[in-house]
Each structure stands twice: as structure tokens, then as C-alpha cells.
Amino acid sequence: MATPLEKWVDEQAKLTTPDRIYWCNGSEEEARRLVEIGIKEEKINGLPVFQKLNDKHWPNAYFHRSHPTDVARTEHLTFICHPDKETAGPNNNWMDPREAKEKMTKLFSGCMKGRTMYVLPYMMGHPKSPYAKACVQITDNSYVAVSMRLMTRMGKEALDRIGSSDDFVRGLHSIGDLNPDRRFIMHFPQEHLVWSFGSGYGGNALLGKKCFALRIASYLGLKEGWLAEHMLIMGIEDPKGKITYIAAALPSACGKTNLALMQSALPGYKIWTIGDDIAWLNIGPDGRLYAINPEAGFFGVAPGTSLKTNPQMIKTLKNDKFFPTLYTNTALDLDANEPWWNGLDGAIPKNIEDWQGNPWNPSMDTKAAHPNSRFTVSIYNCPSLSNEFDNPAGVPISAILLGGRRSSLVPLVMEAFNWQHGVFLGTRTGSETTAAAAHQVGVLRRDPMAMLPFCGYNMGDYFGHWLNIGKKLKQPPKIYSINWFRTDEDGKFIWPGFGENIRVIKWIIDRIGGKTGAKETPLGLVPELKDLDLSGLNIPQDKVKKLFAIDPSEWTAELQDIEKYFGQFGSHMPEAIWQEYRALAEKLGQSKSSKK
Ligand code: SAT
Ligand code: MN
User: Which of 130, 279, 410, 455 could join 483 via S-S bond, C-beta 3.0 to 4.6 A?
Assistant: First the structure.
């Protein structure tokens, strides 16, 4: 008798009518074969899926050029299909599941004719972890199949775990005809199901990542009592050899990957990487919060990555351990046949082709590499990979850092008074848009816990869920707000960032270890300046003070904006968060602005 998995695959084949069905085992030999197929047979937009690059400096490097309209996540085409709109919340696009399936069934009908259907069994998390989930994705694209081998643990262990059960997360994906008008990413959280059509881009097409490990998993976490978060996980080894584990949520363009692989500027401290994008947080048997990274690779932004900004990532890319490493929509150095991007170390090569295949030189006002061009590389290539990465139990988390990009108002670092206050800090985090994005510069987008595009249900309920988790923890992690981006009168960043961020993390570790005090402010607990190790940095005292300045008059508009933001969640907004809001307004002498 057919298993539920065989039955499901059979049904998808009947719908999409591929010429061939191929079950992937996740082996290196298979990946080499798929890459060959992508070089010689499969095409996207008339171009081969893969182009082999020179191995000399960039081992196992293959280049992929996407359709020019298919270069980023498409939030406006992403839907959360709960039976009722209210469960999806004001933070999501919603479509009735029946309507969504009808629409998608039309698109998927016969869409794999002439193509191969790849069946990808994979684990999110270590196969032996009680927190891991078994999944199967179907796709018709070799780039997606190879990327999934890098980003997940693919192969037999997932099939073994599924066996004859019905308990696996299903993802159906086709690149379709890449027409943006026929591109949809549909999530059915209650069925553990994702249907994605018309895009080959990471966040839209690698369904284990944002679609499952955040949107569907956040909803599973609500039902099962855990958290799926947009967070890096890292261990910090102090000069005595003690390792403290932390998780940190930062919206895009705030340096999450750089922080996860940071090379410490303070001697004696060492960073051990566990993940750069997603953390699943569970209450362990001892009542502490344990984190696993469900992924097994990095899908990182290439431009700006260099020996200066992220030396460990450059070493990761130059490691030949795990096959292959993919470069998507970067530029090419044609003489060397190597990938290139703006901000890479060394002289600008003479003969550059931009991400769309046109000749490029630095006098042009276009970028050679697409600003969202990416590398895809196995985490096992990373020289700072923690020994605990494959620990099925995960690592115990001592601190959670919540950040954003704010040029004023929010101090460099601040400790929450307690868990509830920490959740309040997370609910109101936000980032000012940068010139790199196609928005107006300096406009604030609130992005609670960096989860706005990824929470698979009503965010008001999500805040409530965070509060409940805190109540169940015996030893809750301390929560911190961080902001590397405060500027001076000339609009210049005061804090140097990158490897120097260890100075802030050192203070956090000292706080966890009870080794240092803190100063109470209306916003939270901040370092006494003498306790922040700024040796050798040469930041003038008045600027250091500015990193922590709190001006109540600046908070009038901010408080109004927070109140408006919270208001949209109506009765789903927990009263405890409103209490925190009122307490803050009162401390800042602005309680009149608080109506609720
Ligand atoms: O665009 S992805 O979701 O694949 C990557 C990211 O935004 O972190
Ligand atoms: Mn991310």
C-alpha cells in the first residue's frame, strides 16, 4: 500500500504532469550531477541554470543568474491562508484557503510538462533532535534542489523519520514561467503546507526557510508551546574558556550575518557560530530556553561582504569542504571567471560583467552585483562553526538581543527590567529605511522581533505567546535592546560596529554573570560608562554619552506612533503590553498621550 508521502507525491505529479520524477538523496555525487544538468540541459529565461566558475580562489563555485524580475522576496504576493482573516492578523495578506487552492491549482496544472520533478526529503534541525521537523519539497528546478541540499539536512534520515506516517511538512514549488503576474507564495499553516509558484528566489522558493521554518513553524510553535524566530544563534567564549549562548533578532540590513560570524576585536574573546537567520526556541527539560538552528547553510547577501566586514564568511566561501557554493546575481570578473561584488576586497577587476550580463565599469551609476545578490554555502564550511551545532538538544540561551536601525532615541544597549518588559521592547522595535532600499530614506518601519514578514498568525497573539513562554521558563534569558546605528550631528554613525560589537556583548555577558552593575533609566538598564570596555576606540566622551542619550521630548512622537501601531491589533493586543506602554509614558512624563 502506498504511504501518505508516496500518495502525496503521486497526486502532485498528476496535477503538474512532469516528464520525470526524481527522488533526491542529498549526496554530493547527486549534487554534482544536478549541477551538470543545470549547466547543460535546464534553462531559465533562455540561460543555463548554472555556470561553472574558476575554482582557484573560490572552490566549487557556480554562478546562477535569475530572471531579472525575480531577485527578492515578494511580500505583496505572499499570503497566509487561515480559514479566517482574523487569525492571519493585520500583519499578513490573507486569502481564503479554498480560493487560494483553486487559484493555485489552475497555475500548477500541467506546469511541469517537459521538466523533471525533484522530490526533496529534508530535515529542519538535526535528525535526532526532538525539536526537528521532517519535510518534503517538490520542485521543478535544479537550482532550488541544489540550494536545498546546502540549506537543509537532505536525504534518507528525513525519509526514515517520515516512514509511513502522515507527519511531514509539505511544500509544492514550481518556477512556472517566472511571470510576476503569476507568482504567489501561499501558506496553509493548519495543513503544514506551502504552495509556491512563479519564483526561483531563495525566500520564495527554498520552502524550508522563511515559508516553513518561520511562517508555518511560528504557528506550530503557538499550538505546541515553542517559538520560531528570525534570530541568529551564537556562543561567546570568554578569556577563561566559558561559553555563553545568545540569540539575536535583527531586521534585514542590520548586520545579522556579520554578527553571527563576528571576529572579536577584544583579545581573548571568540565567537562560535550556530546560525545566522533562524532559531527555534524550546523550553528544555530543565526549564531553560534551548535554541536550535533548523537550517544547515547560509543564504547571505554578497555585496559588502569582505575580509574587513566579515572575514569568517570569506573563509567560509573559500573552504572546499562541502559541495557546491552558489553565487546568485553577483557580478563576474570575466578575466578570472570568478564572482565579484561591490565591497569585495582588492582592486576592482578590469573586465566586469554585471548581474544581468552587461559590461560594467565603476564610472557607471548602476551596481555591478544586484544589491540582493547572494551566496549559498554550507554551514559546515564555516571555520567558526560551534561544536554544538549538531547537538540535538540545542544550546541553552542566556540572553536574547532585539535590535533595529534607529539614528536617535534608542540607546546602544539596554537591558529589560524583566521578561514582560523585554517583550515590550521587542514589540516596538523598528528600522529606518536606508538608501539601499527603494523607499524614502529615514522612514521608520516597525518590525516587532524582526518577524513582521514572517509571523504566520496575528501578531497580537504572537506577543501574548511570548509572554506565556516567559511564564513557563524557570530561568528566562535576559532580554536586551541593541542599536548600532545612532548618529551624531553630522549624520555619521557614532558606533564603529562589526568586530567592535563584542564590547557591547561583553557587557551583556558580565551582566549575565552578575559581574557588573547597570544604571536605571526610564527605558531600561544601561551600562555605567566605566563598565563598557572602550579601550583603544578613541570615541570622544560626549559622543559616547550621545549613544545613550534619552531626551523625553523626542519621545512624544515615538510614543504616539507606538500607540497607533499597537492599536491595529485591537483585542488581540495583550493588556500586559499596554501596561508596559503606560508605565513608559508615565516615566517619560508623557502619560497624557496614553489614552488606553
Ligand atoms: O530573502 S530570504 O528570505 O531568502 C533571506 C532573508 O531575507 O533573510
Ligand atoms: Mn532573514
Answer: 410
Q: Across residues 482-488, what is the average pLDDT?
A: 96
Residue 593 confidence (pLDDT)? 45
In short, whether 299's Cβ falls inside 6 Å of ligand 1 is yes
Identify which ligand lies nearest to the alpha carbon of 300.
1
Q: Which of 211, 277, 375 to mutate to test the pocket of ligand 1 (most atoms within 8 A of CB)?
A: 277
Q: Is the CB of 277 under 6 A from ligand 1?
A: yes
Å from CA of 256 to ligand 2 middle: 8
Rounded alpha-carbon distances, angstroms, from residue 390 to 168, 294, 296, 412? 21, 10, 10, 33
Neighbours of 1 (CB within 10 A): 5
Cell numbers given for 243: 561559553
Rounded CA separation 534/527 (Å) = 12
Examine the pLDDT at 253 and tell me if it is beyond 90: no
pLDDT digits (tens, 9 = 90+) for 372-431: 999 999 999 999 999 999 999 999 999 999 999 999 999 999 999 999 999 999 999 999
CATH code, residues 4-44+71-225: 3.40.449.10
- Check residue 596 and give its pLDDT: 45
SS3 286: coil
pTM over 0.90: yes
Per residue in 503-551, pLDDT (tens digit) is 999 999 999 999 999 999 999 999 999 999 999 999 999 999 999 999 9
Ligand 1 atom closest to residue 230's alpha carbon, by position in its atom list:
8
Rounded CA-CA distance 314/306 in Å is 6
* Residue 395 grid coordinates: 544550546
Q: Is the CB of 73 under 6 A from ligand 1?
A: yes
How confident is the model over 440-472, as pLDDT tens digits? 667 899 999 999 999 999 999 999 999 999 999
Report the CATH architecture of 228-295+387-550. Answer: Alpha-Beta Complex (3.90)
Q: Is 135 noted as a catalytic residue in this protein? A: no
Please tell me the residue having the least CA distance from ligand 1 atom 3: 203
Which candidate in 81, 111, 254, 455 is catalytic? 254
As a whole number of angstroms, the distance between CA 192 and CA 156 comes to: 21
User: Which of the listed residues 71, 73, 373 should we mutate to test ligand 1's pocket, taking the one with most ligand atoms within 8 A of CB?
Assistant: 73
Ligand minimally distant from the alpha carbon of residue 231: 2
Q: Which ligand is nearest to the CA of 144?
A: 1
Q: How far apart are CA 337 and CA 194, in angstroms?
A: 37
Sequence-ordered list of residues with C-beta below 8 angstroms from that of 160, at least 6 positions apart, any chain: 127
In this structure, what DSSP letter does residue 199 have?
A: -
The domain limits of the chain are: 4-44+71-225, 228-295+387-550, 298-381, 555-593
Q: Which CATH architecture has domain 298-381?
A: Beta Complex (2.170)
Tell me how far the alpha carbon of residue 250 lies from the centroid of ligand 2, in angstroms: 8
> Beta 184-188 vs 78-80: how paired, if at all?
parallel
Q: Which residues of 286-308 are buried (b: 16+ CB within 10 A; e: fewer)?
A: eebbbbbbbbbbbbbbbbbbbee
Q: Is the CB of 141 under 6 A from ligand 1?
A: no
- Of all residues in the chain, what percent carry a pLDDT higher than 90? 96
Q: Average pLDDT, stretch 294-304?
A: 97
